[in-house]
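Entry for coenzyme A complex. Fields follow.
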Amino acid sequence: MKIRPAVEADLPAILEIEQASFADPWRLSAFREALTPERSILLVATDPAVVGYCVGLKVADEAELGNLAVVPEHRGRGIGEALLRAFLASVDAAPPLPAVYLEVRASNAAAQRLYARAGFVPAGVRRDYYEHPREDALVLRRPPGSVGG
Ligand SMILES: CC(C)(COP(=O)(O)OP(=O)(O)OC[C@H]1O[C@@H](n2cnc3c(N)ncnc32)[C@H](O)[C@@H]1OP(=O)(O)O)[C@@H](O)C(=O)NCCC(=O)NCCS
């Protein structure tokens, strides 16, 4: 398994994983915009086909993890954790070290454990943030320079 920046040819596979993973999937255009590396980071895990991706952005001293997903048949192999750590390494690579934020469904225990291991702590709740089903989002924050466990 390898992790590398995504290219245009990866977009169909990314969209397929997105649609298999989320009730309200992002559109193709959102991923296409994230290919422009000025502020965005779009990484794929390959084995050798695309088996997962993560997308986010860094603006000054704040970064946001927008989405992270792994092909259902490949979950539980550490790919999600590897993608998260690659994203954090990427946002930490150039100063300033950012605080990193993300939102996660209140019921998504597997993802929350993954984020806690990487140093994320609760920062707030967005009531009824998600639809299908309607659910709160937990806002998690990784303090600047935190290396995670
Ligand atoms: C969250 C997600 C990206 C984790 O990816 P992953 O490659 O399974 O991650 P890891 O292998 O590092 O495992 C993370 C945790 O998920 C568990 N897990 C999730 N799905 C699993 C599966 N199908 N089989 C086995 N374990 C699974 C792992 O056991 C592990 O739990 P632990 O923390 O108690 O050890 C993946 O489950 C996914 O794509 N979920 C749907 C999309 C999603 O919820 N994304 C996060 C939105 S904020």
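NOTE: The first strand starts at residue 2 and ends at 5.
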